Amino acid sequence: MTPDPDPCPAPDPDPRPAPGPDSGPASPPAPRPAPGEPAAAPPAARAAHRRDLAAVVACALLVVAAALVGTAIEHANGSLHVNWPPLYASWFPHLGPGTPAALAVAVVVIVHGPSLAARLPWRRLVLTGWAAALVWTGSLALIDGWRTGIAERLTTAYEYLTVIHRFDDAGAALRDFTHHILNNAPDHWPAHVAGHPPAAVLTFVGLDRIGLGGGGWAGVWCITAGTSAVAAVLLALRALTDEATARRAAPFLVLTPAAVWVGTSADGYFAAVAAWSLALLALATTRPARPRSPRAGALLRAAAALASGLLFGLTCYLSYGLTLIALIGAAILLLTRTARPLPLLAAGALAVAAAFTLAGFSWWEGYRLLVERYYQGAAAVRPYAYWVWGNLACTVLITGPAVVAGLRRTLAAAPAALHALRPSAAPPRAPAARLAVLVSAVLLAVLVADLSGMSKAETERIWLPFAVWLPAACALLPAHRHRRWLAAQAALALLLNHLLYTGW
Predict the structure, then answer these.
(1) Rounded to whole angstroms, how far apart are CA atoms 82 and 98?
(2) Contact at 8 Å (CB) between 344 and 303?
(3) In the 8-state DSSP scheme, what is residue 84?
(4) Which candidate, 202, 354, 219, 352, places its Cα nearest to that of 277?
(5) In whole angstroms, what is the distance from residue 396 CA to residue 108 CA?
(6) Which helix (H) or strand (E) segment is 89 a member of?
């Protein structure tokens, strides 16, 4: 961990945003308002904000279209296998014990989040961000009550806890794992066990072995581990862009609609493991925030690279599709123009792969059988022509309108930022440009996952490992509008959790 930096500099007294990459020529300075009067935004900033709102409206229309078309398809032939397209959910307006806490967290983060993010010492901000995300996510889960919202989520017939007893001899279960993937195999695994490499179920076997068995502990584990992704993304943003960018993004990383699915699904836990792998890679490619001796700095970077590799290997054995985080890792290496961490990163990843292989599990055989199993179930009838764009509507719902606006600004900045990644060009130094590269890599991973056809529906949880990074784009939004955007984020999350009964 990096030490606390020097005290945060005083905020700019002029709240007007600087011209962004899509704002056109700089406007002449406007006269300062009298005390107590709102500052008038320059024309370029107002135009950029109108484009933000247009992007949000366009994505809202995408969601509406996905809901209307999906409902028509489901009523016609039932091929979507979801009750409230494009989400795996049912219409169920309700309140619950988590409602007051969720409302309170939303108000606190909206009102005080931006100012606290600007002035808290760095280490305290990282821990506070994790804690706030933990309370926000737990409160949303408790809207459905303790049993329904947390304790029973991972105990259904599709989930991991139903097969814990079959791992009394873990070695034999691993050697025999691939023999139970297909639907027509004897004593086949439940859907989620079959759909993932064995590190996923072994996590819950491990919890059971240390006395933390049952759905309650499993749910608490997923929420606690999953929300730590906020801390990981903050550390990565500080290393790859700058501290000011990370601080601006912090409240949006906390108050994300994706928290509805982080609490409680195992994919929230997978997202955190992947996020820490990438955060450690970012730390391995950059210098510590405070000067250290060259030897100490080199040792820290080497340790971070090895740990990143170990977690990347674990990520690949938690979910086959999360090999796509390699695209984000490649963007980190391109931004920092170094390949120094690669040997240790590869050693860590190969160590995990060797351990599972020696234990008797073949990743490639498991993936081959998974593809076959995938098309033995609902995927055989779920229409690709709908889900290839319906999945994107899901992504809008789990990331929120502020992220849509931030991504619009990201895409506006991306061409120039990506152009600077040419070997003959100097790497982009502006934090906004570096952020644009990082977020563009996340969007590329989402696009590849979408086009693969292996993510037809349920992407509100499956794509959590990518979704946790996208709120970083909100750092590009003008600071004086942050509270309004945060309110929109909170409102969407609260509506989703109170109006729908989500499947995960």
Answers:
(1) 26
(2) no
(3) B
(4) 352
(5) 24
(6) strand 89-91
Q: Give the total residue count for the chain.
A: 504
Does residue 87 sit in helix, strand or coil? strand
User: What number is the average pLDDT over the span 233-255?
Assistant: 98
Structure tokens at 444: 């590329």
The model's pLDDT over 348-393, given as tens digits with 9 standing for 90+, comes to: 999 999 999 999 999 999 999 999 999 998 889 999 999 999 999 9
Given this model, what pLDDT does residue 41 score? 67
Rounded to the nearest 10 degrees, what angle do helices 122-142 and 482-499 cross at? 30
The token duo for 477 is: 């939004």
Amino acid making up residue 170: A
Cβ burial of 109 (10 Å; 0-12, 13-18, 19+) is: buried
Give DSSP secondary structure letters for 275-287: HHHHHHHHHHHS-
Helices 99-119, 243-254: crossing angle, 10 deg rounding = 170
pLDDT tens-digit profile of 144-173? 999 999 999 999 999 999 999 999 999 999
Q: What are phi and psi of 208, to 5 degrees?
A: -65, -40
> Residue 312: which residues within 8 A CB-CB, separation 6 or more?
274, 277, 281, 325, 326, 329, 345, 348, 349
Query: Is this model's pTM higher than 0.70 or not?
Result: yes
Q: Is the dihedral of CA 144, 146, 148, 152 positive or negative?
A: positive
Q: Pick from 236, 200, 463, 415: which is nearest to 329 by CA?
A: 236
Distance (Å, rounded) from C-alpha 92 to C-alpha 96? Answer: 12
Closest CA to 259 of 97, 152, 129, 388: 129
Q: What is the mean pLDDT of residues 430-444?
A: 96
Query: Which residue type does 2 have?
Result: T
Which residue, chain included where needed, has tokens 């606390």? Answer: 4
